[in-house]
Design goal:
The protein has a 4-stranded antiparallel beta sheet with strand order 2-3-1-4. It has helices spanning about 10-15, 20-30, 45-50, 60-70, 80-90, 105, 120-130, and strands spanning about 5-10, 35-40, 70-80, 115-120. It is an alpha+beta fold. The structure holds 3'-azido-3'-deoxy-thymidine-5'-alpha borano triphosphate and magnesium ion (MG). One of its GO terms (biological process) is CTP biosynthetic process.
Length: about 140
Amino acid sequence: MSGHKTFTMLKPDAVENGHIGAILNQITSSGFKISAMKLTQMTQADAEEFYAIHKERPFFGELVEFMTRGPIVAAILEKENAVEDFRALIGATNPEDAAEGTIRKKYAASVGENAVHGSDSDENAEIEAAFHFSGRETF
Ligand code: ABT
Ligand code: MG
């Protein structure tokens, strides 16, 4: 069974490149409702915790550096089958492999700077949403 919630970040590259509006438009016009949203910046400790699953990987240092270099847009999205449908909307991790029309195909430059995050399970959607938002910021 799939849940109704996923968590996203428009990453520092997407914000730097002026793509916030276009990406949010694609998300909402694809049927996702925004139930929480803010512009924020991750600290090094935040990024190390958020991506702790990757801490032994060779790209971990660059990933943390990238994710902390500027503001991000964090949001909670709601839709039936949200996790799977949102991963389909954003496309493959490496934009070279992403399908035409997906957000990463259109806005991401590389696997290391891939414009947008989407939770990979219902359980992680809950954990990631709670990492970024308090109850009173969530609608
Ligand atoms: P996220 O939505 O950011 O979690 O990406 P996704 O789930 O599609 O891919 P995973 B495997 O979780 O990648 C996490 C971040 O690590 C970056 N990465 C990944 C690399 O830089 N090199 C690699 O070889 C791999 C596999 C991509 C993701 N972050 N960014 N940006
Ligand atoms: Mg991931």
